[in-house]
Design a protein that fits this description.
The protein is of the alpha+beta class and about 400 residues long. It has 14 helices and twelve strands. The chain binds 5-S-methyl-5-thio-alpha-D-ribofuranose and magnesium ion.
Amino acid sequence: MSAYQAFDNDKAIEYINNLGGMFPPDAQLNCYEFGDGNLNLVFRVTDQHNHSVILKQALPYARCVGESWPLTLDRARIEASALRRHGEVCPAHTVRVLHHNSEQAVTILEDLGHLNILRSELNAGRTFANLGRDVAHYLATTSFYHSDFYLTPANKKALIQSFTNPELCAITEELFFDDPYQDNERNHYPDALRKEVDKLRHNTGLKLAIAQLKQRFLSAPQALLHGDAHSGSLFVDDTTTKFIDPEFAFFGPIGFDLGSFIGNLLLNFCAQHGRICEASKRRDIHTYLLRTIDICLSEFDYQWQTLCEQHGTDNTLQAPGYAALFLRDVLQDAIGYCGSEMIRRTIGLAHVSDLDEIEDEQARLRAQRLALEVGEQLILNARSCHNKDACYQLIISVLQ
Ligand code: SR1
Ligand code: MG
């Protein structure tokens, strides 16, 4: 098999058989496709002893839109390379790559089917004690070891080149920072939100802040990001937290991933108003989500500063207080990106089931309005946060 072709179940099995080494020679393989994401084919291939692997193949277009939205196959190479690099420095929280073929845009991954996607778990009201700490560990470690504080300047520049990901970055640039703030046929939201959407679009302070966030996304190659760190990109159980799907990886502003993750926890916070009727249960999950955000911010801050102290190589770290100053900007960026994730997931192209699957229409509208309001206030006030505690206090204050 040489030229690219999109797989069906039989082709996926044939590919794995020809590759060899994934299963014992006498394996009887079964396969089904179950990708429900926005972009790719995802197959689970299982033998008669229930051993399994995941075969992921990029399509030459965005699956959620169709062939009218062509998309580079190179995203499969970027994703596999990012997983390998992130897996080297943070194996505990990165799915393992078993094989990659750039020509077929195929990656074979360990099967994490014993875990569940975080978004569905949160939607069902389930909580995970280690989540905030684990995500902070992944984000701090993967970003520090791919930043100027650790890499040599020459090495970093070479990596920036190999992770140049213009088509996938363009999706984020448009979906995060352009579409929600102007008329675009990709946006969708109920007519009942028209007033709130117009208010966002007429807020000049907000548009300025969004312009600054977009500019930083375009031109601050601080570290190798995951690029799409939402709660559908995380597999979890009580003891394990694993990131998957970094096809949007590129060298960008470190606060982007942290902000995306916290934004998704806050979207779930807003959604719980329409999901759980019992007030005490709702209070419990709200408390859990806020505690997780608090832990994530604190651990990220602590781990970054510790990594700088213990493994930092760049001379800038000799200037007393520079690591803390750099981190302050990262945290402010994170709060801004958190707010923009909340807005684009409520009125843009790609929504979240947390909000969209609230059955009662009025409850859904209330949750969506809250998400827009919280997102807006976070973006407008992000630059007032001078440390992690101020970030957390801002989040608490805008939720009240
Ligand atoms: C066309 S892709 C839409 C969204 O799905 C991905 O997971 C990213 O979040 C992207 O913005
Ligand atoms: Mg994805």
